Amino acid sequence: MKILCVSDYVDPLIYNQNVKEAFSDIDLILCAGDLPMDYIDFIVTVFNKPTYFIFGNHNLKEFHYYHPESRFFAPKPQDSNSDMSSHGHGATYLGFTSFVDERFMFTDPETGRRRPLLIAGTSGSLKYNKGLCQYSDFQMKMKLLAMAPKLLINKIKYGRYLDIFMTHASPRHIHDHEDPCHKGFDCYNWFLQKFKPTFMVHGHIHLYDLREERIGKYYDTTVVNAYAHCVIEFPPALPPEETNKD
């Protein structure tokens, strides 16, 4: 299957009426944060393909619909409808949860077993001020641990914990920067070592310099920066060249 990954930037190559012709073979779409919800709505409408999204550390006007505990800190809603099902924009929210997606059945190249796609995700960035959807490394690790029981069930039933892990922030020392806002999570490195997803798709790190790395490798996981847009293939036909794990 071919997967369109987008994040952080309303890409004119995507946000146009001819996009479906340009990306005619897309099966799944992953929105890795900091995107306006009307952009996600456009993507869902035009492609009419299964779409998952998470929140970043910006564009959080609808964050409180998915995290009611944040209402105290969020701007007052413009309407009285607090039902998040009215604000889904046709996409599935992947924040701090995992899904077994039986719409995508494939033969696992490692086990030879036919099984569904296993996907999980988290929203937000490392805490750098008092804004919404920011977490300390400890807080994020607790959220990852809360997902562990479902991932263990995946391992028992399907022989694998996870196929795709979508986040906004990157792992520490993989694509991240040293300023407080753009540092990655150390706990993501732990998560990749423990649960070994085939892909980790993240946003948050803007690729202004074409020399910056978009795709890297960390142990068994290919780490993809989805800034603007990129397309990946799952299961991967050929693994990209490994980069330094340190």
Describe it:
This protein is an alpha/beta fold and 246 residues long. It is 21% helix and 24% strand. The chain has helices at residues 19-22, 37-47, 63-66, 137-158, 186-195; strands spanning 2-7, 28-31, 51-53, 92-93, 97-107, 114-121, 125-126, 134-135, 164-166, 199-202, 215-218, 221-225, 228-233. The chain has a 6-stranded mixed beta sheet. A 5-stranded mixed beta sheet has the order 4-3-2-1-13, covered by helices on one side. Helix 4 packs parallel to helix 5. The protein is globular and about 45 Å long. 38% of the residues are buried. Residues 74-86 and 238-246 have low confidence and may be disordered.
Low-confidence stretches: 74-86, 238-246
Query: Based on CA inertia axes, which overall geometry fits?
Result: globular
**Percentage beta strand:** 15-25%
Instruction: Characterize the quaternary organization of these chains.
Output: single chain
> How much helix is in the residues?
10-25%
Give the rounded overall mean pLDDT: 90
Going across the biggest sheet, name each strand in turn.
5-6-9-10-12-11
Number of helices: 5
Gyration radius, to the nearest Å?
17 Å
Query: What is the CA-CA span between the terminal residues?
Result: 31 Å
- The secondary-structure class comes to alpha/beta
> Could you give the order of the helices and strands?
EHEHEHEEEEEHEHEEEE
Query: Biggest sheet, open or closed, and with what strands and sense?
Result: 6 strands, mixed
Q: Quick one: how many beta strands? A: 13
